[in-house]
Design brief:
disordered N terminus; alpha/beta; 11 strands; homodimer; 10 helices; disordered C terminus; 8-stranded mixed sheet; Rossmann fold; two-stranded antiparallel ribbon
Chain lengths: ~280, ~280
């Protein structure tokens, strides 16, 4: 759990706020549009998840800085991505993690146990920004995947505690790197996003919704990152047990872009579920 | 987390084991078949979840003892269920929790914070049996649902620790009581089951697969109950945010009854996922 989040009231987003109107002035751009592309830095971008995300985001028109502890390792990974997709004109630049952290929007894609430490090292660059974490704390024990619960409840909560002046969102935990990085196929499944900062959820959701096949869902505040991150172990376990690649899809839910959805539970218009919807 | 489960090797199930062949000799019965019906006791059965489960299980041909701390409260709830579905000839008997615990298969449907204590009170009746838990530890903070992680990692793990001689499975966490109890409609969504005892997963899965619309999925050992229980908070949050009832459905997964699936990850035939399927 994240004790610091309990009892905190999430501020309502002003009615005129839009997903594109982040405090950083990041403008959304469709591929090929004349607007400035969304610029995103990926810290720890040389791992499978970070590299796959870089390819996917560049493919939807974002301009990426792929950061690493080693800029040479970053150069190698960027070469590999560009070589794999020569006709797609992906705009991915290599660099140190600090260079990635200087971009207006930042994703932390390190292994889970390095996320908070790496964030701390570049904290000065991240002040005021939306920072997404995509790591899960998992261990493999015998033939099973088990979720680990970090002391603050989740990787995302650990990063938020390290970066009190940033707006941290958890996102993209459930998408396998191979699928995310295969630009010939859409992304299957729902992308669950949560944050204590509604505008951070909006900002990440707007980017995710541009990925073919993906559906961004607002899952409330950062305390739910515990459940979202841990649930990855269940998906991994099902992959092993049923020898497949599962994707998460919530049924009974139309695709409502978060920009259309509006204020939500922090507003006065939220519907209270009936008491009997709590299974226990 | 459940430290006791880490490093434990789950025994492989013998090739000739079947889901019906539990140690209690419980036989599966289709509605109207001449075989003995599956007898199930529900501890804490007077709450919304327990009463809904009693109705659903009776409707697929099981014979139910609906237990409560108060046998009179149990009688009242059973009357209500039978009155709601007069033409379905549901076999549901009222009684004390100890009477429910005496049945060959037992479900604990109390509020989450009473599950382990109630289990302890009737532990002598539960020795050697399959015991399913369906509770989630949730709290409502402001307008958000947040998952609580019990000290042993999950409600199910707490109950397993209380009942070392029983075989505890977590199941049915994600189905809203209103849907479970509406016998005019199928159960939408996947039912995730996990246990440190493979035969307990099999036994519960065989029963769940008889519910119209439900698909039982083997999610590995009990350490994943942490993720499964906590994920209920995400589903509740989505219900509030999107004003709907969501159901969980994993895509990319054919329905393979667990009896057909066989040994699984504890056997030598399990497929190891590629390293890059770990998102981080």
């Amino acid at each position: 759990m994240l004790p610091g989040a309990l009892g905190r009231t999430v501020s309502a987003v002003p009615a005129d706020a839009t997903p594109n109107g982040s405090a950083d002035g990041v403008a959304a751009a469709s591929p090929g549009s004349s607007a400035e592309p969304t610029r995103i830095g990926i810290i720890g971008g040389t791992g499978p998840a970070g590299a796959a995300l870089a390819a996917r985001l560049a493919d939807i028109g974002c301009e990426i800085t792929l950061g690493s502890r080693s800029k040479y390792r970053s150069m190698e990974v960027v070469d590999n991505i560009v070589d794999r997709w020569p006709d797609r004109h992906l705009r991915i630049h290599p660099g140190a993690n600090s260079l990635a952290a200087a971009e207006p929007t930042v994703v932390i894609a390190t292994p889970w146990d390095a996320a908070a430490i790496t964030a701390r090292d570049v904290a000065e660059h991240l002040r005021g920004k939306v920072v997404a974490t995509m790591s899960n704390a998992l261990a493999r024990v015998d033939d099973e995947f088990v979720p680990l619960i970090p002391p603050r409840g989740s990787v995302a909560a650990s990063v938020q505690a390290t970066l009190p002046d940033s707006r941290v969102a958890a996102a993209l935990q459930h998408v396998p790197a191979t699928e995310l990085g295969n630009l010939d196929e859409p992304v299957h499944g729902d992308i669950l996003i949560c944050s204590d900062h509604r505008e951070a959820t909006w900002h990440i959701a707007e980017i995710v919704d541009r990925m073919p096949g993906a559906r961004a869902l607002d899952c409330g505040n950062l305390s739910n990152a515990t459940a979202i991150e841990a649930f990855t172990a269940v998906l991994m376990q099902l992959n092993t047990r049923y020898r497949t690649r599962v994707a998460l899809r919530l049924v009974g839910l139309d695709h409502v872009p978060i920009s259309v959805l509006g204020g939500g539970p922090s507003g006065t218009d939220a519907v209270q579920p009936a008491a009997e919807t709590v299974p226990d």
